[in-house]
Amino acid sequence: MSNDIPAVSVIIPVYNAAEFLKDVLNSLLKQTLREIEIICVDDGSTDGSLVILKEFEKADARIRVIHQENQGAGAARNNGMDVARGKYLAFLDADDFFEKNMLKAAYDRAEETEAEVCVFNADLYDHTEKVYKKCTWAFRKQYFPEKEPFAATDENVRNNIFRMFNGWPWDKLYQREYVRRLGIKYQNLRTTNDMLFVFIALACASRISTVDEVLIHQRVNVRTSLSRTREKSWDCFYIALLAMQKELKDRGLYDTLERAFVNWALNFSLWQLNTMTGSAYEKTYRLLKRKGFDCLDISRHNRRYFYSNKEYDKFLKIYTTPYEKSSGYQKAK
Known about the structure:
Blueprint: E1 8-14, H1 18-29, E2 36-43, H2 49-59, E3 63-68, H3 73-83, E4 88-91, E5 97-98, H4 102-113, E6 117-126, E7 131-134, H5 161-164, E8 172-175, H6 176-182, H7 195-204, E9 208-220, H8 236-250, H9 254-274, H10 278-295, H11 309-320, H12 327-332
Parallel strand pairs: 1-2, 1-4, 2-3, 6-9
Antiparallel strand pairs: 4-8, 5-9, 6-7, 6-8
């Protein structure tokens, strides 16, 4: 790469991450790929995160700090992307940590395969229990084609593209010019603001490759994580799914990828419902039953269209059972 153009622009949204920030930045500064820029977007932190960021910015010219009023991780990633100069983009979280060769391995594989998106393996680190756990649902090799790179619309890929990988951004490297050409952005949602960006990037890609090596460790069971308070933004998943559906239609991809989308929409909707409690559970149940399953095209198809009989049975039960007669209502009484 040219001295003026970093190999990878690393973009990190930061909000009250002081507890982990030094470890994250030191982990990045030790990367074996040296030709990187690290763009940290402080999202109005109140815990001293900005002070830590400024200290690192002074110590290493590869670090750039941007400050914004609190707008959420989606806006922070978009603002970081606007100033990124690297050939590839990496979107990382401020509480995860990484293998030293993470960026080098992903960059080399992306270059070797001329990939628009390169996905690598990951695991989970339970912050409370202090143990590592497998993350089997985000890198499902049983659905990968034999040859790489591959396109989302390939006949042996199209039905599985949204269950091969997860809709989070941090285990992937994206070709910046490809992202610019697509014109995709992160949504301005409290949660699930990344799914649209990630899955449209995958859906439109004609060259996807993978690295079957655990290169990143996602920290889970963190007290300050927004994912622990999704009840406050219970409908974000539905807004994101509708936006994804519309984007696929607008880009002429829906007919080809409809089965993959509908199965993902059902899986994700059921997961959201099952992880909600109290009034958020009731609102999610009523939304899906009243219009969600219809608008997402889930109710249009018969059992044979779906990958999981169990999920289809759950859909049918919700679709035909008033909330007052549901098991969730009985538990809430």
